[in-house]
Amino acid sequence: MIYFDNSATTRPYPEVVDTFSTVARTYFANPSSLHPLGKEVEQLLHSARQKVAESLEVEPQEIVFTSGGTEGNNISIKGIASQYRDRGNHIITSTIEHSATYDACKKLEKEGFRVTYLLPNEHGVILKSQVEEAITDHTILVSLIHVNNEIGSIQPIEEIGQLLKTYPRINFHVDNVQGIAKVTLPLKGTVDLCTMSAHKFHGLNGNGILYVRKGLKIDSLFTGGSQEQGIRPGTENVAGVVAMTKALRLALDQQKTKIFMIEEISRWIEQECEKIEGVFVNSPKKRAPHILNISVPHLKPEVIVQALAEKEVYISTKSACSSKKNEPSRVLISSGYNKERSSSAIRLSFSFENTMEEAIEFMDIFKEVVISMKKVVKK
Amino acid sequence: MNYEHILIRYAELSLKGKNRKKFESKLEQNIKQALITFPNVKTNRSFGRMFVELHGEDEKAVSEKLKGVFGVYSFSPALKLSLTETNIVDGALWAMKDALPSGSGSFKVTVRRVNKDFPIGSQDMNKVVGGYVLRNMQDLTVDVHQPEVELKVEIRQEAAYVTCKSVRGAGGLPVGTSGKVMLMLSGGIDSPVAGYLALKRGVTIEAIHFHSPPYTNDRARQKVEDIAKVLTQYGGDIKLHIVPFTDIQTKIHKQIPDNYEMTVTRRFMLRIAAVLAEERKAKGIVNGESLGQVASQTLESMYTINEVTNLPILRPLITMDKLEVIDYAKAIGTYDLSILPYEDCCTIFLPAESKTRPTREKSERYEHWLAIDDMVQQAIDGITTVDLKLGEASQPDFEQLF
Question: How far apart are CA A256 and CA A375, in angstroms?
């Protein structure tokens, strides 16, 4: 099996699953319960929060545990909109956001907010100057993705963060679901809110981290208990959180030693693809090492995915969250690609567990599939 | 070039005559303890000065730790230079550029020449250093009265030292030079601050906490442990004595009229603290009382409660307003823990009203129905002691999960 769909979900580390099962079996009590069992679980949760904060170089009270990326983005965008609607009604985002962000903004538009959707350049990048030009007196939020989930382009978040420091009324949310443990982004002093999700760094589905800068007020989407400072009430998924804490530590360690391997795989496949007639690389040269987007115009991407799956090679069309819609990719269209190329894109995404041998094997299978399918289509 | 040394100043210690040596060695020990996470750091002392040698460790991170060490009046990152004129002026220029990265500002030069073998006198050296810096940096002006940067050059036997920045330390006396006291630690906002301020005057503390299960739960106890843990940052290892108090509280509740319940309870706490102090060879008791803050802290209450012991009771917060105490609590990192909403033993059985002017006579009269000595002894016998160590995780079992 060759698993190149790591931007959809990574395989959890075995140690992480072990931790999950130990915690689920041993520390099952509700951390809010007053008895000693509850207290012990609360301590465990507290320790996990400290570890996560250390890993991200922020403070423990800035960590909110969530269910994942979609929830983090929704809490941030809708929460800020609701908290600061008296201050202004303008939001800046881009056309290359994950649908959790993009659709949240679309929804806010219906509620009377004004949203500016910045268009990327041909490399899939939003520039600081674009953000600066879009700012008005009514702007309350800038929400941008750090590493784009379809093509892997990297946004200049630190630069934009520095710019926004001079606008204390504007909050800066960053979707770092794809970037965490792949492309380093210092949070403190750069962003106000940052979304991360465990299953993209070998944790389990259903767990995420939302960084909320100390002192920032944000309206909660949910009402209920006072868990997670009331920002995300609901009984905590302690086993998932502890497992995620472990995954984050392991992934950040691997980033230091193995990110170069991923880069090598990505570069090599890119070069090989460029040699095949009728295959185009959509990802920019300067990109996150783990995402590679290619188009095979005139072939339906779903069919390629299925054909590869028959040979136990697993990849995606677009992003997993929007792959069921039969439309050209919004990200590719807005990066300037034509409809044909934007409708025929597939995404390879790598993890620390992939090897160069897999890359070579993939290339053989991919060539075979593309050539034989093209013959069929031509007839 | 890089700062390789940090020069430590300790003003108050020099007043201490014969004890000075002892104080200095204690301070050095405490600094080593505080910097234990920096394995390359070394310390050394000579002629009323102490140096921390960085050997590649990060100056800023080390400075952050030094700020918490009592007995340090101020400190400065320093360059150690060999005794030639060119070395000294080059070092001085580097330090100025480091202190004023924008390149503009005002400064003055102060040269001290302890080593009279050095050929250039201090007045001449002032001009040499100042002139060199002025020639090599633009937008620099001299201001001898209120300079932004004071460039100090000290020429000693072994080397010349150049400093530009001076950072205020925590002040006070090195922990461990003023004897031992018992801290009555409730888990509220005040008592941790009292403990901190006592540490500042150089005592070591052992903490005593009254625990009344099932009326106070494990979280309240954990909270006190966590607070004491924070105090270890300032005072090294702390022993926390947990006194079982349910029995005494129940008896008091049964026997003593409502409005004297609090007063008598406090008298019992103090008796227990005093006995424990004697056992642990502590020479005083510290608490978080502030005059008039609550019923138990009026002058009349203190007079009545204090009757049960003649150990000195130190009350570092006695003149402070609540808001001042809160500022301290926030600064030392205990506030967020203190406001966690768990009941402590002071709030249970709380009568509708307490006497703000209790008398010794009445307290004694009510108490004489109780077997005081037995009750105190029983509590003492039931004490469990937790050793809190600097920098140790409180729940090591969890580590393997992460």
Answer: 44
Buried residues in B3-32 as b, exposed as e (16+ CB within 10 A): bbbbbbbbeebeeeeeeeeebbebbbebbe
| Cα dihedral across residues B14, B15, B18, B22: positive or negative | negative
A245 occurs within a structural domain: no
**Which chain B residues are closer than 8 Å to A43 by Cβ?**
222, 394-395, 398
Q: Would you state the torsion angle of the CA atoms of residues A339, A4, A256, A172, taken in this order, to the nearest 10 degrees?
A: 40
CA-nearest of B20, B18, B331, B328 to B10 is B20
Question: Is B184 annotated as a binding-site member?
Answer: yes
- 3-state class of B160 per DSSP? strand
Average pLDDT over residues B119-126: 92
CATH number of the B180-388 domain: 3.40.50.620
Find the helix packing angle between B299-306 and B258-279, rounded to 10°. Answer: 50
Residue of A nearest to B399 (CA): A47
Q: How far is B252 from chain A, CA to nearest CA, in Å?
A: 27
Name the residue with tokens 């959707």.
A117
Asked if A47 and B336 come within 8 Å (Cβ–Cβ), the reply is no
Chain B nearest-CA residue for A32: B219
Domain boundaries defined on chain B: 5-168, 180-388
Look up the CATH number of the domain holding residue A79: 3.40.640.10
Q: Give backbone dihedrals phi and psi of B301, rounded to 5 degrees, phi first.
A: -65, -45
Q: Is A10 helix (H, G, I), strand (E, B) or coil?
A: coil
Digitized pLDDT (tens) for each residue of chain A, 379 residues in all:
999 999 999 999 999 999 999 999 999 999 998 887 888 899 899 999 999 999 999 999 999 999 999 999 999 999 999 999 999 999 999 999 999 999 999 999 999 999 999 999 999 999 999 999 999 999 999 999 999 999 999 999 999 999 999 999 999 999 999 999 999 999 999 999 999 999 999 999 999 999 999 999 999 999 998 899 999 999 999 999 999 999 999 999 999 999 999 999 999 999 999 999 899 999 999 999 999 999 999 888 999 999 999 999 999 987 555 656 668 899 999 999 998 899 999 999 999 999 999 999 999 999 999 988 888 877 5
E strand or H helix at B152, and its extent? strand B149-155
Tokens 């004595």 sit on residue: B241
SS3 (DSSP) at A308:
helix
Q: What span, in angstroms and rounded, lies between the C-alpha atoms of A244 and B47? A: 54
Options 3.30.2130.30, 3.90.79.10, 3.40.30.10, 3.40.190.10; CATH of B5-168: 3.30.2130.30
CATH at residue A342: 3.90.1150.10
Residue B391 pLDDT level (bands cut at 50, 70, 90): low
Whether A50 maps to a domain, the answer reads no
pTM for this entry:
0.72
Structure tokens at B130: 């100042």
Whether B394 and A245 lie within 8 Å, measured CB to CB:
no
Q: Which of A234, A266, A290 is the last residue of a domain?
A: A234
From first CA to last CA, the distance across chain B in angstroms is: 40
- Beta-carbon contacts of B319 under 8 Å, excluding residues fewer than 6 positions away, are B290, B291
Is B137 annotated in a binding site? The answer is no
